[in-house]
Amino acid sequence: MTGDPRPDGGVTTIVEAPVEQGRLANVADIRTIAGIEYRLAVRNRWALALTAVFAAFALGLITFSGASVGPDGFDRIVASLAVLAVYLVPLGALAFGYDAIVGAEDNGWLQALFALPIRRWRVAIGTYLGRAIALVAAIAIGFGIAGGMLIAEFGLAEWSTYTVFMLGAIALGLSFLAIALVLSSLAREKTHALGGALVVWAWFVLVHDLLALGVIAAFRLSDAAVAALVLSNPAGVFRILVLGMLGAGGDAGFATVMSAAGLSYPVLVAAMIAWIVIPLIVAGVLIQRRRL
Amino acid sequence: MISVTEAWFALVGTLVMVLAVIAGGASAMTEDTDREVWTPDTPELAADAADGSPAAILNGESYDRLGAALDAAEPGDEIELAGHFEERVTVDTPNVTLRAADGANFRPRLDGGGEGTVLTINATGVTVEGLWVGDSGTQRSEEHAGMLVRGDDATIQNNRIADVTFGIWVSSATDVIIADNEISGDADRSRNQRGNGIHLFEADGATVEHNDVRTVRDGIYYQWSSDVVATDNNLWDLRYGVHYMYSDDNVLSGNLAFGNDVGFALMISQNLTITDNLVVDNRQGASQHGILVKDIDDSEISGNEIVGNGNGLYVYNAHDNVIEDNLVMENHVGIHFTAGSSGERVVNNTFMHNDRSAHATQTAHLSDWNATDRGNYWSDARTIDLDGDGASEVRHRPAGTLEDLLRAHPGAEAFSESPAFDAVRLAESSFPILEGSGVVDHHPLTEPPHDHWRQYYEDHD
Questions:
Q1: Residue A138: closest CA among chain B residues belongs to which residue?
Q2: Is the confidence metric ipTM above 0.85 for this complex?
């Protein structure tokens, strides 16, 4: 207790939280680290930069697709935004998260944390949560600005699809942030994590689906196999969640294939949550084994 | 824990999400996702057949049997009818007119009693006007019909023909006029057990206009009939709205075909002119084509609106036709191109919001449709118009590798709209080295040539 109303960097708050083995103390550890990560993200302008990127691309897309606004223009714009988000949100999340652990080691912060009596996996969770809050807010505000423009143009009649799109984009961001944390926990150097992030991005955004198309073209796959190909890519799960909601621009075939493959909304939502939780657990395990 | 200076960012983000979810929940309750297209009215056949005792008036004399009046008639005579005639008659005298008596509220009724053909015309220049003709025999092989026209220059006008196997059968008679009639078959029989509404056999030079035809097999059927002009007919609840067989040089214009298996089935004919027709919602059966173009050469299909069918246009072994200025919208497949069709000119059409714009089954053959520097509008095309002339400099592949893949492996649909799809499309349109079979449009249009397409959504959104 220093009496400073704005403790900087969280150092005093750690002292503030007594080292207890109770459940309350566990949560406090995580909360403290999350708070630090969040504040750093806002102060070093990452949060604002992400917001600006999401808002700029979404607004640009809405503005330039203005020529083809029809009665079902709203659905088409949301579909286009979903296609854009498949590229943009994973890239933003990976760029924001790849240095979370390995970067903290570079500047000595990780060593300081590990010296304190805090479980390592709680460091991972705290780091993730702090950055996740900043990322979620950035996605919400960035696409929210674009959503405001859509309300001005189309009203609220079909807004629920946009809500699903925003929630999906947030889940997509959280999932790739978790994957970034895995890379960061694994990498020995920051550049390795960055390279890994780019490979992961290219894989999930492009290569995975291209290979899946090739496999489907080459073999007669069962519905379950097609479903597995879809669910093994968080970007694919997001795309199908949103486009399925929109009816993929009036394409009945899409819905038929989805239901034949057993890809109902509960399955897709569960897969999306799994793509957040499982990488997070993996990152927690990896950071336990990490050698400084 | 989180100090005020930085917390605003998370708070704003939370606020946006809360608002979005509340608005989403509110709008979900009022959601209406119907995407039906406009459908026309289907009027019932008016029940205005006369029921009184029969009277046929010829030159001031009244007969209670039409057959007797016809026996007495001289060429050029006019017979006025009233009441309900339970007889089947034949007109053998030229230039006789049969029509309803002046001032009658109900149509004089010719009732075949469920056997044979009700009214047979063997003489030339006969006019039949304002009658109700019904209840023919039910044998399709015996050609039981409401009217059988064997005389040239007959005029069949403003009649109602109901409960018949064939409606009006024109057999080896030229220059017949069939106008303003309503024809209705037996809806309880399966379509293949019914006869045709207007059956033209060697009926060169016929005029068929303003007729309403429903619940027979084919609305207007042509066999060996040339120079027939059919305009402004309404054709619904049929197998084929219009069916051409071996019939060249015909004009079909301004007609409406909806709710059939096939709107217009054009087969084995040449030099047809199919213009300005409306072909809507033809998917009630196994074929589900808007316009079937099968073994058709040197014909013009232009200015039609082809909306909400299974296949908008199904082009099968057809050569050197012009398909121009059509609006092809909301069909399952916009244009299906198959069985070695070649030499087609497909220009200035609007392909709007079809599930698949085009499908081509040519193997190792790339169809090139543009005879001019302008192509078609494809609502799913990626167009880049640098010089502002309304035509894209980037070519479009409405039917290519991905369409083939989706056809063969529907499971690939799960990856539609993915960046992988975009990459394949981009590669196909950018690198001609990846030339597969299918269709290419070298100059896709940036704006639809038909700007009234939105009217189809007026009632529904």
A1: B13
A2: no
Q: Which residue's entry shows tokens 């960097």?
A: A9
- CB atoms B3 and A257 under 8 Å: no
Q: What is the dihedral of CA A106, A110, A114, A118, to 10 degrees?
A: -170
User: Residues of A with CB below 8 A from B424's CB?
Assistant: 210, 213
Looking at the domain assignment, is residue B7 inside a domain? no
Helix ranges, A203-233 (H): 208-218, 223-231
The tokens describing A134, both together, are 């900043």
CB–CB contact B410 A213 (8 Å) = no
Residue A90 and residue B419: Cα distance in Å, rounded? 13
Structure tokens at B305: 């609106």
* Within a domain: B171: no
Which residue do the tokens 């629920």 mark?
A: A160
Are residues A137 and B9, on separate chains, in Cβ contact within 8 Å?
A: yes
Tell me, what's the pLDDT at B29? Answer: 54
The pLDDT tens digits of the residues spanning B276-311 come to: 999 988 888 888 899 999 999 999 999 999 988 888
Q: Check residue B423 and give its pLDDT.
A: 76
**DSSP for residue B242:** E
Strands B366-368, B438-441: pairing is parallel
Number of independent structural domains in chain B: 1
Chain B within 8 Å of A27 (Cβ-Cβ)?
no
Distance between CA atoms of residues B426 and B429, nearest Å: 5
**Domain range holding B453?**
304-461
User: Looking at the partner chain, which of A39, A42, A253 has a beta carbon nearest the beta carbon of B413?
Assistant: A253
Residue B189 belongs to a domain: no
CB-based contact B287:B309 (threshold 8 Å): no
Which A residues, 152 through 211, put their C-beta within 8 Å of a C-beta on chain B? 156-160, 162-164, 166-167, 170, 205-206, 208-210
